[in-house]
UniProtKB/TrEMBL annotation:
Span of domain Quinolinate phosphoribosyl transferase N-terminal: 18-119
Enzyme Commission code: 6.3.4.21
Keywords carried by this UniProt record: Glycosyltransferase, Ligase, Phosphoprotein, Pyridine nucleotide biosynthesis, Transferase
UniProt-recorded name of the protein: nicotinate phosphoribosyltransferase
Organism: Candidatus Heimdallarchaeum endolithica
Length: 399
């Protein structure tokens, strides 16, 4: 039996680091430089796809890791769930998270820290744009089967925070404190030899609180399978899911319109239409007018990552940085009225909005002081509400 998943203990021991950090640490110790106090920033230069903003996620796990290491570090960060652009109004990369402390102590944690942030921010941002495209329609996370099972709760946490209405994974739902949501698998319909038997069995054996949603594309045409499901469970039918394979898709909108027409003939305009099978934000936008909800999987679970970098900008209290990066400890101001970000040196004190001249809100806050958590991270529910509040100002990227 083999297990290729790193345990939390192995991460804390630094075993998932890149070996060059171990070598660097060894040399710095030999040269008596490992306790050099540095201030380093996490930034990103650009975003995947045509994204203009990202949903910052992963902070809770970064903090959990540093709490466990018991290192004497200070951590400053924007709140988890903040939606922001990679650069400020002047093109300066916005530092989303900064660490201050003896470099030799925390160097090995750069790798896992970036891993937590890059992956979760990527999945969360993909989910955010799907949410935006879907507007008021229902969105369910169906993508855990495309990734290593150990990642399922991480993917679903990001989707739920981004505003998805439900998740199919049992463990994810348990952790999120919600009920898992799903329909029925094709295999069940095949073994029951048709949608009628399958829906009758589901209706008889499954808790009445669970919505009866028929998967309507297994053996025959969607329209006829929907009618069979309706015959089987009648009033109990809540919705139908069309997972039409791409080889049979033709004009999916026409198929949906026909299904709706036939449902109307039977007085069941209320039956919800759910779509799944390869949907991303573009397809959700395209089918928004004909569907009531979408099961979204691969496009979100297999999202490109947001490639954050980690760079020293101050050493022993003096500004310094590698070429290509702006030196000095920065503060990040935000003006809600103008929707403008501005980075300036922290030594400059208050930040004034370059557009309206009012005092800007400082969005980077101290989360850890000398290794102790000093600010509430917020639970999943509050981060989700925070995301919803910010979404009003966000627009879908132009095609
Ligand atoms: Zn302003």
């Amino acid at each position: 039996m083999e297990n290729w998943i790193a345990s939390f203990d192995e991460i804390i021991k630094g075993k998932t680091t890149d070996v060059y950090f171990l070598n660097a640490k060894k040399c710095l110790e030999a040269d008596n430089l490992d306790k050099t106090v540095v201030y380093a920033e996490v930034t990103t230069d650009s975003l995947p796809k045509n994204w203009t903003h990202f949903l910052f996620l992963g902070l809770a796990e970064v903090i959990a890791m540093f709490q466990k290491t018991k290192l004497n570090v200070n951590i400053y960060s924007v709140d988890e769930g903040r939606i922001l652009p990679p650069k400020d109004i002047n093109g300066v990369r916005i530092p989303v998270l900064s660490i201050e402390g003896p470099y030799g102590d925390f160097a090995i944690y750069e790798t896992p820290m970036l891993g937590y942030l890059c992956f979760q921010t990527g999945v969360g941002t993909s989910a955010l744009y799907v949410r935006l495209a879907a507007r008021e329609k229902i969105i369910l996370s169906f993508g855990i089967r495309r990734m290593h099972p150990a990642l399922a709760p991480v993917i679903d946490r990001a989707c739920y925070i981004a505003g998805f209405d439900g998740v199919s994974c049992v463990l994810s739902a348990e952790k999120l404190g919600i009920k898992p949501t799903g329909t029925i698998p094709h295999a069940f319909i095949i073994i029951e030899q048709g949608i009628e038997n399958a829906m009758r069995s589901f209706d008889k054996n499954i808790d009445p609180e669970v919505k009866r949603i028929a998967l309507s594309d297994t053996f025959s045409d969607e329209r006829f399978e929907v009618m069979k499901a309706l015959d089987a469970v009648g009033d109990h039918l809540y919705g139908v899911r069309l997972d039409t394979p791409s080889s049979r898709r033709g004009d999916l909108k026409e198929i949906i319109k026909e299904v709706k027409w036939e449902l109307k003939q039977r007085g069941r305009e209320d039956v919800k239409i759910f779509l799944s099978g390869g949907f991303d934000e573009k397809m959700v936008e395209e089918y928004h007018d004909v569907a009531d909800g979408f099961g979204v999987g691969t496009s979100v679970a297999n999202s490109p990552t947001v490639n954050f970098a980690f760079d020293i900008v101050e050493m022993n209290g003096q500004s310094i940085s590698k070429r290509g990066k702006y030196s000095g400890r920065k503060q990040v101001g935000y003006c809600q009225a103008c929707d403008v970000y501005l980075c300036s040196l922290e030594s400059q004190g208050k930040i004034i909005c370059p557009k309206c001249g009012s005092k800007m809100e400082k969005v980077v806050k101290q989360y850890m002081m000398n290794g102790e958590l000093i600010r509430d991270l917020g639970d999943v529910g509050s981060i989700r509400r925070y995301v919803k509040e910010q979404m009003e100002k966000l627009e879908l990227p132009k095609k």
